[in-house]
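Schema walk-through. Below, the input block comes first and the output block second. Nothing else is stored per chain. Lengths vary across the set, and this one has 91 residues.
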Amino acid sequence: MNTDAWGVDIAYQDAAGVVKHVSHGDLVVLRAAIGLPPTSGSWFEERGRSCDEGESSPLPTSGELTLEDGTLLELQTRLPEDLPIGYHGSN
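--- output ---
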């Protein structure tokens, strides 16, 4: 699916496999809530990321990830399979 500069998917596939497009109004509201689109910073800041439990996604660069509970995690080439469920951020 296509993702805009804010990291918001402009379309998604529903449970029935049908591609749905996010309305322009919803995109405007989401972008306003996020603020200006990122122009620099870490890969995580530029490209929001989600993954399924137990998934080990490749990363384009190494770095640090601050877990939701405040734990600092060093990342190399992949997200770890045992990454806890939650909202995490980069430094």
